[in-house]
Amino acid sequence: MKKIITLVVLITGVIFSTQAQKKKKDHKEKFTVAQQTELAVKKMTLQLDLSQDQQAKIKPILAEKYAFKKQLHEQRKKARENNEKPSLNEQFDIKNKMLDQKIAFKKEMKRILNNQQYERFEKMQARKEHGKKKRMKKGKHKKHQRSHHDAPDQE
């Protein structure tokens, strides 16, 4: 009897602690578009040795990029809250807009940066994409493991 009570108390504690952690994640504050832009410009300045003129030209481009990302995030958040999934055509439109935005961003960066800076910029982008793919792969692997371990044995 004592073991059962201890087990129930332990399970209840674990459940409440995981719920508290989920709530903390939901209320995570994000930087504003202006703050994200400012940080990104400074980071790029350090990595690419940008001039004042280059910084001034890049800032509005990054602001537009972050505003676009924030808009997409808000749309996804609303859809998730309403338990809506985008149709295949909506998914295509979103991905198409994202790729158009990336192409335009890359063209502008090529126009603003000199050859050496642009080469470094390309390497930075490649590393970022590689890291993103790696994290996505790791996340999918975790999901697969979780569902695999949670499934009852079918023998």
Automatic annotation (TrEMBL):
**Where in the sequence does UniProt note compositional bias of the Basic and acidic residues kind?**
119-128
Q: What is the lineage of its organism?
A: Bacteria, Pseudomonadati, Bacteroidota, Flavobacteriia, Flavobacteriales
Which protein are we looking at? DUF4890 domain-containing protein
**Location of the region described as Disordered in the Swiss-Prot/TrEMBL record:** 73-93, 115-155
Ranges of biased composition (kind: Basic residues):
129-147
